[in-house]
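We modelled the chain as a single entity of 150 amino acids. Its sequence is:
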Amino acid sequence: MGPVTVDLARWIGVQLDEDERIARAVVDAQFITCAEWHARGPFGDGDRFGNVQSDNREQIVEEDLLWPHAAHIAAHDPARVLREVDVKRRQVEWCVEVIGDRDLSRYDEVGSLKDDKDALAVTLAVETLRLLAWPYDARPGYRAKWAPTE
């Protein structure tokens, strides 16, 4: 696997480690084990507030939140984030396996994979890695050349 792909796969791994660290810190701080969070509310006519509760012992995690904020927080609960991290790590592993030891230093050049019988699979793997990295483009170390192609 070429250095560009190795760097990208490793960088994505670091970002996933950070996502996992943050999610686990929330789980540890709230004493919640494998809980799912749910938004509750709004609580009355015209009420704009809600809260976020854990399904473990119906513990209130956050209260008096603006309803859209409560819904957003609940949708990104730590249990979900941890599942997403696991899925993304598997995707990275599969992409790395498909790419193998190919030298992709000229990947962005037209026709660079023309003689590769697995060109479609390799392209899908490279573009999947680029897409997995893209949400983290504001984090240190992201390279513009990793942006997905259009």
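As a brief sanity check on the tokenised model: The longest helix spans residues 3-30. The two ends are 23 Å apart (CA to CA).
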